[in-house]
Amino acid sequence: MTARPHISILVVAAGRGSRAGGGLPKQYRPVAGRPLLAHSLEALCRAAPDASILPVIHSDDLGLYSQSVAALDRSYAARLREPVFGGATRQASVRAGLEALASGPSAAPEIVLIHDAARMFSGEALLSRALDAAIAHGAAIPGIAVTDTIKEIDSSAGVVATPPRSNLRAVQTPQAFRFDLILEAHRQAAAAGQDELTDDGAIAEWAGHRVHVFEGEPGNMKVTSAEDLVLAEARFIRELPDIRIGQGYDVHAFGTGDHVWLGGVKVPHDRGLVGHSDADVLSHAITDALLGALAEGDIGSHFPPSDPQWRGAASKIFLAHAAERVRARGGMIANIDATLICERPKVGPHRDAIRESLAAICGVPAERVAVKATTSEKLGFTGREEGMAALALATVRLPM
Ligand SMILES: Nc1ccn([C@@H]2O[C@H](COP(=O)(O)OP(=O)(O)OP(=O)(O)O)[C@@H](O)[C@H]2O)c(=O)n1
Ligand SMILES: C[C@](O)(CO)[C@H](O)COP(=O)(O)O
């Protein structure tokens, strides 16, 4: 198997967004509650898990940039290199980024993908095509067939040419290159005073390289105008994953015994909980929360108390089943938050063990599982220590 090349992604975000208007540069304008740049960076982090990412920003925008990074998941933010400052044109900003990659603390990449921060819908398939094309051709850009007829015009003569549409492509980013090729092409163009080229493909072309065009994506829009921001927001909201919240509640009475089961952990107590199964009130509430999020009935409909096979059963079977239902629907459990209501036993000393146990049963990290406890101030059935109650919420993310 050939080793994967070392890849960097340069994200140019130093423009002023004058065509979009609205005060802030467009890459910092909110889209669905977060700066546009946070969406673009997140899309790249998701689509290219191995690549390091170098943002190129304007020197006036450090505060805005930090706010965008703060809106990212920490694991994504950790993948970003220290930003470098861009120049007065896109071309100058790209060159600043390439020079930083060439002279930075880590080895220069073999392949560089150059991407507009203003494009927030770049997915894995597009990045993968870009990478393959750069490896195969050295210089490659994504293009889509144009569907409008394009005219070349002159202000005095009007239309001067109608180029055959079948040969025209609207090109996008990421544009992908062998790093040494595009760095040298940018240096040569700058030295020759050629500083108004609007994409990196044009720079490679100017330097005499054959530039390959691979299939772009119609959805890979560049936010340029104020209308584009509105379209991007609408599209982002339409593509949001299906986030579900489920709730569960359960009660079991105390009876004789020397322990209770809580979240799959045996907790010593001077009484036990009575139930058809092991009466793990916490696991039951969470099972119902997960099934509730899926709108797939409740614990009783999956494991009828009338069925003798569940007599004395370990409740982790029920909970693992509910978690498996989430996975079977292509989803993931985002978090579980549960509260036990009892005077005794004290839950605090067992909390971490219970969280670990629930996390293992559900197949999620323990940091996504919260277990809390409260008394009812000696009021009601829990206050009189006649039984225990548990409440649970689960957030589940399903594919659209
Ligand atoms: N001096 C510049 C100009 C542009 N860009 C970046 O290049 C991408 C594509 O440029 P464009 O959409 O034209 O952005 P702006 O230059 O900001 O827009 P405008 O021309 O409307 O001012 C954007 O992500 C933009 O931030 C850049 O890094 N440095
Ligand atoms: C690089 C680019 O996005 C390819 O379509 C485009 O040329 C950028 O042009 P802009 O005027 O800087 O938006």
TrEMBL record:
What is its pathway?
Answer: Isoprenoid biosynthesis; isopentenyl diphosphate biosynthesis via DXP pathway; isopentenyl diphosphate from 1-deoxy-D-xylulose 5-phosphate: step 2/6; Isoprenoid biosynthesis; isopentenyl diphosphate biosynthesis via DXP pathway; isopentenyl diphosphate from 1-deoxy-D-xylulose 5-phosphate: step 4/6
Q: Where is this region: 2-C-methyl-D-erythritol 2,4-cyclodiphosphate synthase?
A: 244-400
A Gene Ontology annotation in the biological process aspect, one of them, is: isopentenyl diphosphate biosynthetic process, methylerythritol 4-phosphate pathway
Gene3D superfamilies in UniProt: 2-C-methyl-D-erythritol 2,4-cyclodiphosphate synthase, Spore Coat Polysaccharide Biosynthesis Protein SpsA, Chain A
Give the enzyme's EC designation.
Answer: 2.7.7.60, 4.6.1.12
Region annotation (2-C-methyl-D-erythritol 4-phosphate cytidylyltransferase) ranges: 1-243
Q: Where is the 2-C-methyl-D-erythritol 2,4-cyclodiphosphate synthase domain?
A: 243-396
The terms under GO molecular function for this entry are: 2-C-methyl-D-erythritol 2,4-cyclodiphosphate synthase activity; 2-C-methyl-D-erythritol 4-phosphate cytidylyltransferase activity; metal ion binding
InterPro entries given for it? IspD (IPR001228), IspD/F (IPR026596), IspD/TarI (IPR034683), ISPD_synthase_CS (IPR018294), MECDP_synthase (IPR003526), MECDP_synthase_CS (IPR020555), MECDP_synthase_sf (IPR036571), Nucleotide-diphossugar_trans (IPR029044)
State its cofactor.
Answer: a divalent metal cation
Q: Where is this site: Positions MEP for the nucleophilic attack?
A: 165, 222
What highest taxon heads this organism's lineage? Bacteria
The site (Transition state stabilizer) lies at: 19, 26, 276, 375
Which keywords are on file for this protein? Answer: Isoprene biosynthesis, Lyase, Metal-binding, Multifunctional enzyme, Nucleotidyltransferase, Transferase
Q: Which PANTHER family match?
A: 2-C-METHYL-D-ERYTHRITOL 2,4-CYCLODIPHOSPHATE SYNTHASE, CHLOROPLASTIC
What job does this protein perform?
Bifunctional enzyme that catalyzes the formation of 4-diphosphocytidyl-2-C-methyl-D-erythritol from CTP and 2-C-methyl-D-erythritol 4-phosphate (MEP) (IspD), and catalyzes the conversion of 4-diphosphocytidyl-2-C-methyl-D-erythritol 2-phosphate (CDP-ME2P) to 2-C-methyl-D-erythritol 2,4-cyclodiphosphate (ME-CPP) with a corresponding release of cytidine 5-monophosphate (CMP) (IspF).
Per the record, the similarity remark reads:
In the C-terminal section; belongs to the IspF family.
Alphabetized NCBIfam families for the sequence: ispD (TIGR00453), ispF (TIGR00151), PRK09382.1 (NF006899)
- Name it: Bifunctional enzyme IspD/IspF
- Could you tell me which species this protein originates from? Methylocapsa palsarum
User: Which taxonomic lineage does the organism of this UniProt entry have?
Assistant: Bacteria, Pseudomonadati, Pseudomonadota, Alphaproteobacteria, Hyphomicrobiales
Give me the gene this protein comes from. ispDF
